[in-house]
Amino acid sequence: MTNTTSETSPKDSPQGAISDFGIDTTSQSTGEAVRDYVARLRGGELGSLPALLGVVVLLIVFSSLADTFLTLGNIANLLAQGASVVIIAMGLVFVLLLGEIDLSAGTASGVTASVMALHLINGGNLLGGMGDTVFYLFCALLALAAVLAALMRIWAGTALSAVALVISLIGVPANPWVEMLLAVCVGTAIGCITGYLVARVGIPSFVVTLALFLAWGGVILQFIGEGGTLGLRDDVIFNVANGNLNTAGSWALFVVAAGGYAAVVLGRHFSRLRRGLVASPTPIVLVKVGVVLVLSAVATYALTLNRSKSDLVVITGVPFVVPIVLVLLVIGTFVLERTSYGRHVYAVGGNKEAARRAGINVAQIRMSVFVIASSLAAVGAIVYSSKVGSVDPNAGGGNTLLMAVGAAVIGGTSLFGGKGKLRDAVIGGAVLAIIQNGMGLLDQPAAVVFIVTGLVLLLAASVDALSRRRAASAAR
Amino acid sequence: MSEPILELRGINKSFGPVHVLHDIDFEVHPGQVTALVGDNGAGKSTLVKCIAGIHPTDSGQVLFDGQEVHIHGPRDAAHLGIEVVYQDLALCDNLDIVQNMFLGRERGKFGMLDEADMEQAARKTLTSLSVRTVKSVRTQVASLSGGQRQTVAIAKAVLWNSKVVLLDEPTAALGVAQTRQVLDLVRRLAEQGLGVVLISHNMNDVFEVADRIACLYLGRMAAEVNTKDVTHGQVVELITAGRSGDLGIARPETATI
Fold first, then answer.
1. What pLDDT is attached to residue A327?
2. What is the pLDDT of residues B139-176, one digit of tens each?
3. Contact assessment for residue A154 and residue A371, using Cβ atoms and an 8 Å cutoff
4. Across the 476 residues of chain A, what is the mean pLDDT of every consecutive 10-residue run?
């Protein structure tokens, strides 16, 4: 930018002003864009670059150390292992964007998993599965959640809580799809309660969710019974995390996902160019789209090869978790980037007071992110329960939640709010999944795995803090 | 003189036991810059927040375009065409200029954003205000200087075909060149026919851009005068003592606090 523009007299024709913008905004050469990007990196806006580099480094390290790491079977396994943490982390990104935290997402997901298992095992008779008192309390809480959501005019929360209530009260017969719907709806209801306590009652989210973390842990124990385990013997539920698309389906997924991505990105880019709006240089956009197309084509091809270790069975196709994560990622990214709701989430996370003065219903936004987080945590619960094939009293406990928060933070989501994208959760989740998987292949004891995971998280948090400091000093 | 676009009659406002505004009468005329001056704690910012609907008033009338109106919140004020540029800017650092200018009133259908439309409108507004210091309308606000932020905040207020713009100390934190830019911008707003209210502590700024000066003293309107009828010294006396010769509150003894 030149200094002369700021000193030109205000009497210049408006035409001159337009061209002032025109030069700087709409047409940027590739070289300029690259230099701009480097400047932003040096200014501290790293985004998910450190995490992406982390993925590459880890891939190189583990594939050189463990022969089995880069086998097809292991890669597919890695995807299924990482998926549940990624999904829970995607929900947490919404909460973290407001600078809040949801410590209860892990055990809340465990509650939804145990409700799902109870419903399946008891043939839809939750009353029998839970016992009278517990069942009526459960229904009362669902009703309360629906009312609280209605009070805050979060109609989706009301609707899904009501669905959960209806399914429970009517005793809809066991059906895997009903079970999964019930799990998600219970998750929504839990989120309504958490969100109301934070946004309307005004208790700090750390305290609310810490309390609920303990409480939900107790609820899981109550539902399952001490020492018990609820088995999930159902093909549909089993296939969520363990099944694969067939070869044709895999390529169809490639066409829809990668083709859709290319169509959307290119369509948007050229329409912006046509209308004279700010756009990245065409070569950069083409390279981006090309890289995504090639990588996803290679991945799809690799995953359609037989990866079975024995000659008796054939395992091919893209695991179901891939389209599940992709769909959630696309919907969530659309909501955050392209809707006014998403814009308001960023605004409240960036400057709550400014958002309030702009007429945004801050309390409603704050409550809604907890609803989203718990609902997605329930989806994560379905995936991890499916992977294990059963639900035990530890479901969602332990470090499930901390791994999810770690995934979001490693991916570049800021704990201070206002900064982060949904894809951060996917990239960060990949880092964590690769570490766990790779360390396991190297036969490292759990102690080492935990220490390394912790250090990586610490590294990611330091990168965030340091880049913030640079950004702050660069701004003024 | 033209009809006032915004008129306050007998506004009272208390925060608990503290009576902040006493029977304030205040007029804003289109095409004029009205400076609102007063010492710290005189009630300037409170008056602005009452007009903006952030604080409800205890009693009194608000007339907009000759019609009595009731402002219950920021949205009501915005709906009438009253926009406020706050002292502390009220911009979101993590959003870009376009996103900030349309915050809370995004354009688009079914909750989806029409980025292209918003970007064009934002650029048009900035151009109409002859703002050229902004590199790109897609620059994040975090990376703008103080003057540029103020410019964005003012442009945000103008974007909505607003009729009254209230500026709460827009030049307080700015350097010489940036103050110049903002004052030029304030003048341009009035030339476009808006009613502009400028709160400022800086007498040079006030005398440079204001057509009328309204002086608050301990929560009372001490005087509303034309800038050309008063001197620098008189205004300072009005601010510090509430009266100056014939102007101001008649007898300071009667001004109970």
1. 92
2. 888 888 777 888 888 888 888 778 888 888 888 777 78
3. yes
4. 38 38 52 75 72 87 86 86 92 94 93 92 85 90 94 92 91 88 94 94 93 93 85 86 87 90 89 80 86 90 83 83 92 91 92 85 93 95 90 84 88 85 90 88 86 85 76 57
Contact A275 B120 (CB under 8 A): yes
Within 8 A of B73 by CB-CB distance, chain A residues are: 359
Instruction: Please name the residue of chain A whose CA is at the shortest distance from the CA of residue B53.
Output: A357
- Give the chain A residue nearest B54 (alpha carbons): A357
Segment 23-52 of chain B within 8 Å of chain A by CB: none
A71 — contact with chain B (CB < 8 Å)? no
- Asked if B153 and B161 touch (Cβ cutoff 8 Å), the reply is no
Terminal Cα-to-Cα distance of chain A (whole angstroms): 16
Predicted confidence at residue B228, as pLDDT, reads 86
- For residue B103, the chain A residues in CB contact (below 8 A) are 343, 347, 354-355, 358, 360
- The answer to whether the complex's ipTM is over 0.95 is no
Report the distance separating Cα B4 and Cα B107, nearest Å. Answer: 31
Predicted confidence (pLDDT) per residue in B196-230, tens digit: 999 888 888 888 889 999 988 888 888 888 888 88
CA–CA separation, A161 and A439 (whole Å): 41
A344 in contact with chain B, both atoms CB, cutoff 8 A:
yes
A94 CB within 8 Å of a chain B CB = no
pLDDT score recorded for residue A9: 38
Q: What is the mean pLDDT of chain B?
A: 83
| Spatial separation of the C-alpha atoms in residues B25 and B19, rounded to whole Å | 16
pLDDT the model gives residue B247: 74
Distance from CA of B52 to the nearest CA of A (A): 9
Surface of B (189-248) touching A: CB under 8 A: none
Binning pLDDT at 50, 70 and 90, where does residue B256 land? low
DSSP classification of residue B1: -
Q: HEC states along chain A?
A: CCCHHHHCCCCCCHHHHHHHHHHHHCCCCHHHHHHHHHHHHHCCCCCCHHHHHHHHHHHHHHHHHCCCCCCHHHHHHHHHHHHHHHHHHHHHHHHHHCCCCCCCHHHHHHHHHHHHHHHHHCCCCHHHHHCHHHHHHHHHHHHHHHHHHHHCCCHHHHHHHHHHHHHHHHCCCCCHHHHHHHHHHHHHHHHHHHHHHHHHHCCCHHHHHHHHHHHHHHHHHHHHCCCCCEECCCHHHHHHHHCECCHHHHHHHHHHHHHHHHHHHHHHHHHHHHCCCCCCCHHHHHHHHHHHHHHHHHHHHHHCCCCCCCCCCCCCCCECHHHHHHHHHHHHHHHHHHEHHHHHHHHHHHCHHHHHHCCCCHHHHHHHHHHHHHHHHHHHHHHHHHHHCEECCCCCCCCHHHHHHHHHHHCCCCCCCCCCCHHHHHHHHHHHHHHHHHHHHCCCCHHHHHHHHHHHHHHHHHHHHHHHHHHHHHHC
Token digits of residue A42: 């040096």
Report DSSP state, residue B91. -
Distance between CA atoms of residues B193 and B128, nearest Å: 13
Closest CA of chain B from A343, distance in Å: 8
Rounded to whole angstroms, how far apart are CA atoms B166 and B170?
10
Cα of first residue to Cα of last residue in chain B, in angstroms, is 34
With a CB cutoff of 8 Å and minimum separation 6, the contacts of A269 are A279, A280, A282, A285
Q: Report the distance separating Cα B217 and Cα A381, nearest Å.
A: 63
Q: Is A271 on the interface with B (CB under 8 A)?
A: yes
Q: Is A39 in CB contact (< 8 Å) with chain B?
A: no
What is the CB neighbour count within 10 angstroms for residue A200?
15
